[in-house]
UniProtKB/TrEMBL annotation:
Pfam families: Peptidase_M19. GO terms for biological process: proteolysis. The keyword Transferase does not apply. One of its GO terms (molecular function) is metallodipeptidase activity. InterPro entries: Metal_Hydrolase, Pept_M19. This is Membrane dipeptidase. Keywords: Signal. It comes from Blastomonas natatoria. Residues 1-20 form the signal peptide. The lineage of its organism: Bacteria, Pseudomonadati, Pseudomonadota, Alphaproteobacteria, Sphingomonadales. Gene3D superfamilies: L27 domain, Metal-dependent hydrolases. The keyword Signal applies.
Length: 395
């Protein structure tokens, strides 16, 4: 009689074991892990009159992809917020104009963080990210896309470091005083002598070197010269689409062999398509900031609608994941991350604003990656590189 309930107990134990082994919901995993994107061009939106990072926006209304409400909805804990400067003349006046612009953008980033201390915090160490996220704030690392504003004085890199800069790339769309760009002239055969000094100074200070936009020759020399691992903050595999901004498999393997990471971009994964409406609006967009607020808002809506109606390519979410999977298969989960170029032209069909990024985690889990591997891709790998960059600087 004392064992007559044994089958029920056995069933209960079996049920409990099955429950314990049931896969965790992808949405819950996404919210639990630390998520960072390495290329947020969103500070460019601060130039829009009245635009606030704390307001909810919509890519179909004003073309912007990242703000605090959508970061919360999408479970993005933060990332590297970009000080972007367009390439200009390689002369004293060009450097001065670029430096003023870069400093303005840097201070805009500090200002939005200072104005919203409950929601954002500046991070300067690899160890800061998890602490900040645990406090409920969003992580703000500072990154420089195009080191052209430094001019011919490498000491300027130290000044930006003191103001929080922790990642920098030598070039953007155009060769400058430091290095050759993917779509610029081959002037230096890679890095200039000043560019080599820039690499050494970045290593000394503890700034992550970003090879995105660098010509193949420049990338090779960055990898050879740097004493710390480097990253590609927003690049894709050339195996999917032969575009200069993408990187061939051999170089991705070389990057991984030195401990680096390729953060997968959402651009340049398919051939470009004609965009007649978008192209027709470009001249007006150059004058947008000089328009009265109501006219500017109407133009921004028109621009946003045109970009939704005429995407730059046929790249969709599946194609974006194909790029991620290609790199994982090539070099493993320890050398792949996410840098989709939000607010810098990024986004694909089906993944066009930051609120949609849980789809990435869901797709990674569906492919059989563990929770630990997914977190490496979202943050662990870039923070590992950052910690090594700090260690090298400390030596």
């Amino acid at each position: 009689m004392r064992f007559r309930h044994l089958p029920l107990l056995v069933l209960a134990c079996v049920a409990g074991t099955a429950s314990a082994q049931a896969p965790e919901d992808p949405a819950a995993i996404h919210q639990a892990i630390l998520t960072l994107d390495t290329h947020l061009d969103s500070p460019a939106n601060f130039d829009q009159p009245g635009w606030q990072i704390t307001d909810r926006h919509d890519v179909a209304q004003d073309g912007t992809q990242v703000d605090l409400p959508r970061m919360i909805e999408g479970g993005l804990d933060g990332g590297f917020w970009v000080i972007y400067t367009a390439q200009g003349p390689n002369d004293a006046r060009g450097y001065a104009v670029a430096l003023a612009h870069a400093l303005k953008r840097l201070h805009q980033i500090h200002d939005f963080v200072a104005a919203n201390p409950q929601s954002f915090a500046i991070a300067t160490r690899a160890s800061d990210a998890r602490r900040i996220a645990a406090s409920g704030q969003r992580v703000v690392y500072l990154s420089m896309e195009n080191s052209y504003p430094l001019g011919n004085d490498i000491a300027n890199l130290d000044a930006f470091y003191q103001l929080g800069l922790r990642m920098a790339g030598p070039v953007h769309n155009g060769t400058n005083q430091l290095a050759d760009s993917t779509n610029g002239e081959a002037v230096h055969g890679g890095l200039s002598e000043l560019g080599r000094d820039w690499v050494r100074e970045a290593n000394r200070l503890g700034i992550i070197i970003d090879g995105s936009h660098a010509a193949d020759s420049t990338f090779d020399q960055l990898l050879e010269l740097s004493r710390a691992p480097i990253i590609l903050s927003h690049s894709g595999p050339r195996a999917l689409h032969d575009h200069p901004r993408n990187v061939d498999d051999a170089r991705i393997k070389a990057l991984a062999a030195k401990g680096g990471v390729i953060q997968i971009n959402s651009l340049f994964l398919s051939p470009n398509k004609p965009r007649p409406t978008v192209d027709a609006l470009r001249p007006r967009m150059k004058e947008a900031d000089s328009l009265p607020p109501s006219e500017r808002a109407a133009l921004m809506r028109q621009w946003a609608e045109a970009n939704v109606a005429e995407p730059p390519s046929d790249t969709d979410f599946d194609r974006y994941m194909q790029a991620i999977f290609h790199c994982i298969d090539l070099v493993g989960v320890d050398h792949v991350g996410i840098g989709a170029d939000w607010d810098g032209g990024g986004g694909v069909i089906g993944l066009n604003q930051i609120s949609q990024i849980p789809k990435i985690t869901e797709a990674l889990l569906a492919r059989g990656l563990s929770r630990e591997d997914v977190e490496k891709i979202w943050s662990g790998n870039v923070l590992r590189v950052m910690a090594e960059v700090e260690r090298v600087a400390g030596k």
